[in-house]
């Protein structure tokens, strides 16, 4: 099936082994021999090959033919290269050494601009003609994550002056050696329609508003803090975003909602009695509201649209979805099976343990019995069956839904039809909740059903900005762009894709309906990358460190002042330190008491600070900073060992005995140095000093 020659195909080729006879045949079928491929790789990439074991393989994918070359050494590492067997072009390259550390949190030795020059020189050497047909795509955070050892560079293919995001060149450069560690290309021969006689951008915007459009809706916002629950936010969003054909103005097939799978089960609970915590008691009290297993089983049997005669109940369990709790109630889950004529059939079903509603079921569907038959029911008739069933089992919830779409795939047997309904609240869409129901067109039987419905409060639709105001905000920040895209014929899976010219609005977030703020999918304000603009750090001894941490998002740029000589508060030091310890999971957030609580929660869980040491607005002393930094290095337990550390600071008598280990470690690692032979343990740490010690902390080889 030739749907994709994806970005990863080069790496798939690396592992595709073939027999020697196949390689011999390949030598005759390709323009570039194995010997020539080896010479090309060694010459262009500067590979000596000495001290390595060498293996090769050959791969074909349609007309795409590749030699895969691998040099391997237990001491030197691995070099992998793929060479196009028809053109001699290097299509992928990667190198790994035993000392490689892809996620080593250090401040890089070289800047992104220095690495960018290396990446460009590499591409000009390896694939000069293709490189001329690209433009660089600068990521939202150009420096990348500081815990990543490489800078990444992406160059998108341009055809007729128009972007083709499906194709491009990709290079990774080591931040500390400036060596190219990986390269691959995704580039195919397609026929591109010329941008002639197309609709205008203004016409595309008009079509977007009329046929796709912003909709006032509720968004489900996940908890930001521990023990918080899900909440809703009134927003303007695009829930059917889709490209617009640049020639016809036709809206292409929209994105679909896919409900979460149901029918998950939990393991049996322990029976040993012991002292219960408050949280455990709370759970027991809540469980008293749950219906019994027998009651849930009775509801399931009465609610299913088919008989369970002959089926044997194999398991029953009470399950709580901890990801959504308490936004979703616990459910009773059941599993039945049936063996008949050497065939096995199953049924799964779930019942809400609080409301007694059937929330999910699915059953085995034969793909043989109806294979050569004509469907007995039309889409319309199946929809009527589905809605009649939903009106019977969940009448109130079904009343508060809006029909979204119907999907089917005639290329699969049996060709099942799935209908989706989205939740509404007071006429406003809440698309994160939905009902899906699937039917067999040959029998009219309902084969699966899923109710995805959260228990959340909804903000009243009051004091919201107008739709016109929302459109202005959207179009002031996002451009309707011409793009080439790949268009797949889903009715003919084996057919190659065609390139289509479309208009696209690359927006998948929200607009706060009350404030007009642009939000990401998590409901957080979208912060556009901006250069550091502090006006009070020029000439400061820590200027370079402050700028570096700000560029990485460890220091948040709010306003034009950093106040380097001001004492840093504990809450700000904790926030900056946590961002150096656990950056992948916590994006920069606006300052508020709740945001600081998030960082305190992490710091306490990682034993950086003890709960009783929490004092958010107090200045941090150098001694306190030393202790937190050593704990962040996860060697605090060593610092606590008595009588093994010695320090020579002139003011060592001012340092408590139980803190000597912390000072010894932090000064020994050159993170906090002191001056003139003094450590100054009780002196408050300035904001400039905080930046400097955090940069040194990140430079430690952990």
Automatic annotation (TrEMBL):
Originating species: Caldanaerobacter subterraneus
Assigned keywords, A-Z: Repeat, Signal
Stretches assigned to the SLH domain: 529-643, 646-702
Protein name: Peptidase M4
Signal peptide, first to last residue: 1-26
């Amino acid at each position: 099936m030739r749907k994709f020659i994806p970005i990863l195909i080069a790496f798939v080729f690396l592992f595709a082994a073939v027999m020697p006879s196949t390689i011999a045949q390949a030598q005759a079928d390709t323009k570039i021999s194995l010997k020539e491929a080896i010479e090309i790789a060694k010459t262009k990439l500067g590979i000596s090959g000495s001290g390595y074991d060498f293996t090769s393989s050959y791969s074909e994918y349609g007309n795409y033919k590749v030699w895969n070359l691998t040099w391997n050494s237990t001491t030197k590492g691995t070099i992998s290269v793929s060479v196009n067997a028809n053109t001699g072009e290097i299509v992928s390259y990667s190198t790994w050494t035993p000392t490689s550390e892809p996620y080593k949190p250090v401040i890089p030795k070289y800047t992104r601009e220095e690495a960018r020059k290396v990446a460009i020189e590499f591409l000009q050497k390896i694939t000069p003609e293709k490189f001329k047909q690209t433009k660089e795509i600068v990521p939202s955070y150009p420096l990348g994550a500081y815990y990543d050892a490489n800078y990444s560079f992406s160059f998108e293919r341009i055809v007729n002056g128009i972007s083709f995001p499906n194709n491009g060149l990709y290079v990774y450069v080591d931040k500390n050696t400036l060596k190219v560690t990986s390269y691959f290309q995704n580039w195919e021969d397609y026929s591109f329609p010329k941008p002639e006689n197309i609709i205008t951008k203004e016409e595309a915007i008009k079509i977007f508003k009329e046929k796709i459009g912003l909709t006032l809706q509720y968004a489900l916002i996940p908890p930001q803090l521990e023990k918080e629950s899900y909440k809703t936010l009134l927003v303007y969003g695009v829930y059917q975003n889709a490209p617009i054909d640049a020639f016809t103005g036709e809206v292409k097939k929209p994105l679909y909602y896919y409900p979460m799978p149901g029918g998950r089960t939990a393991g049996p609970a322990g029976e040993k009695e012991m002292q219960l915590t408050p949280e455990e008691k709370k759970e027991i009290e809540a469980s008293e509201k749950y219906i019994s297993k027998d009651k849930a089983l009775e509801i399931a049997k009465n609610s299913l649209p088919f008989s369970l005669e002959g089926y044997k109940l194999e398991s029953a369990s009470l399950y709580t979805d901890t990801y959504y709790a308490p936004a979703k109630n616990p459910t009773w889950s059941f599993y039945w099976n049936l063996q008949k004529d050497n065939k096995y059939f199953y049924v799964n079903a779930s019942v809400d343990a609080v409301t007694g509603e059937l929330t999910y079921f699915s059953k085995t569907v034969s793909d043989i019995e109806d294979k050569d038959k004509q469907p007995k029911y039309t889409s319309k008739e199946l929809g009527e069956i589905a809605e009649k069933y939903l009106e019977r089992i969940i009448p109130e919830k079904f009343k508060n839904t809006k029909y979204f779409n119907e999907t089917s795939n005639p290329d699969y047997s049996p060709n099942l039809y799935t209908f989706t309904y989205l939740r509404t609240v007071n006429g406003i869409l809440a698309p994160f909740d939905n009902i899906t129901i699937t039917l067999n067109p040959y029998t009219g039987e309902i084969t699966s059903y899923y109710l995805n419905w959260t228990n959340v409060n909804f903000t009243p639709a009051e004091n919201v900005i107008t739709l016109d105001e929302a459109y202005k905000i959207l179009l002031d920040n996002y451009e309707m762009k011409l793009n080439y895209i790949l268009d797949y014929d889903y009715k003919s899976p084996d057919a190659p894709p065609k390139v289509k010219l479309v208009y696209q609005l690359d927006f998948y977030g929200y607009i706060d309906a009350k404030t007009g703020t642009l939000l990401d999918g998590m409901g957080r304000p979208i912060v556009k990358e901006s250069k550091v603009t502090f006006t009070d750090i020029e000439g400061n001894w820590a200027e370079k460190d402050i700028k570096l941490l700000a560029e990485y998002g460890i220091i948040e740029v709010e306003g034009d002042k950093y106040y380097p000589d001001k004492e840093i508060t504990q809450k700000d030091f904790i926030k900056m330190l946590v961002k150096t310890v656990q950056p992948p999971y916590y994006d920069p957030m606006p300052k508020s008491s709740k945001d600081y609580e998030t960082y305190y929660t992490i710091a306490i869980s990682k034993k950086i600070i003890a709960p009783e040491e929490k004092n958010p607005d107090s200045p941090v002393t150098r001694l306190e900073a030393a202790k937190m930094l050593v704990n962040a290095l996860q060697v605090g337990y060593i610092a606590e060992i008595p009588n093994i550390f010695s320090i020579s600071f002139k003011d060592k008598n001012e340092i408590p005995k139980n803190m000597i280990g912390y000072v010894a470690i932090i000064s020994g690692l050159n993170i906090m140095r002191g001056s003139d032979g003094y450590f100054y343990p009780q002196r408050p740490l300035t904001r400039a000093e905080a930046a400097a010690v955090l940069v040194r902390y990140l430079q430690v080889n952990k």
